[in-house]
Amino acid sequence: MSLMTLTTQGSVAVITLTDGENRQNPQFAKQLKHTLAEVVANDDHKALVITSSDEKSWSLGIDTDWLMPAMKANMADEIRGFMYDMDDIFKTLLLFPMPVIAAINGHAFGNGAILACACDFRFMRSDRGFFCFPEVDLSIPFLPGMIAFVKKALPYYRFNEMKLTGRRVAGEELARDHVVEKAAKDNDTLLADVMEFATTFDKKRAIFAEHKKRLHKEIIQIIDEENKPYIDNLSLMV
Length: 238
Description:
The chain has helices at about 25-40, 65-70, 75-95, 110-120, 135-140, 145-150, 155-165, 170-175, 185-200, 205-215, 215-230, and strands at about 5-10, 10-15, 45-50, 55-60, 100-105, 105-110, 120-125, 130, 170, 180-185. With about 240 residues, the chain is of the alpha/beta class. The protein has one domain (about 5-200): 2-enoyl-CoA Hydratase, Chain A, domain 1 (Alpha-Beta Complex), CATH 3.90.226.10. A hairpin with a 2-residue loop joins strand 1 and strand 2 (about 10-15). It is globular and about 45 Å long.
């Protein structure tokens, strides 16, 4: 089952998440890793846009219909594998050799919002969709690496407030905080704004990747070194 599609519009690669709420599970992680590699394999790509085909959701985070039964069945290896795969995705996006732009055309909750924060730029709708971190209400802590790269996307005071309250925030407020580049009036305008922005990029991959490598050096180190003890010992996660 395909959970996403990859198309090319001029010099822009477009990954469209196609599985409704686009919940994240082992299959999602493996397909996204593979699709990101496909984007890089095409030398014509100068930018990447990630969007959703769903009218309401960009990504609603971890697939609890998979996770809860997996936890009850003590499928620790599968859960760890998923967490490491998601860390690989976050690192891939943080070091991607071209700009990665999240076209958030619906709700981005939990790991969905975190995925958007791993992108370089975010655009959102003002008429639909909320951005939130409900983990505080779900008794799920952030991994250290997640905290590190979400802070590069959100002002600290806003992240502190959103993380500790779980409040849902709309596009216009996020635009005022410069979390998103722009809040568009509707979906058509969102996609037009994103594509206009994406086509402005014509950077050499090597130097773009080097800039991101140096910029995010500390974040990558935290993901590599500080996440591992929590993932390996899942009991530390609660």
